[in-house]
Design goal:
Length: 104
């Protein structure tokens, strides 16, 4: 399980499911999974470049083409701007986040 903070979810790389991180308490909502193959271009476009690399690698490991997933009507003919200004995400607290929110 990895956190994709830029889109507010946890990502299970074994199943391909994403789980929302709740705004009010930061806990992961395991009751409402969404498979990454069901995510839309807006979701993919919201990924921070570091998070995008995690997702892109998952697609490659599964022998899937991420560009096909991103090529819906809104994205055809456009490029994903991975150099855009994005908020800085502090990944240093990741271990404590896991300890607080995940059952070992």
């Amino acid at each position: 399980m990895v956190m994709l903070f830029s889109v507010g979810c946890a990502f299970d790389k074994e199943t391909g499911n994403t789980f929302p991180i709740m705004d009010n308490d930061g806990k992961i909502d395991f009751d409402n999974p969404v498979n990454i193959l069901e995510c839309n271009s807006e979701w993919f476009g919201g990924l921070h470049p570091l998070d995008f690399d995690i997702v892109k690698n998952w697609f490659a490991d599964e022998d899937l083409d991420i560009e096909v997933m991103m090529a819906d009507d809104e994205m055809v003919g456009t490029e994903l701007d991975l150099d855009r200004d994005m908020p800085d995400y502090d990944y240093t607290g990741f271990d404590s986040f896991l300890e607080k929110n995940l059952i070992a």
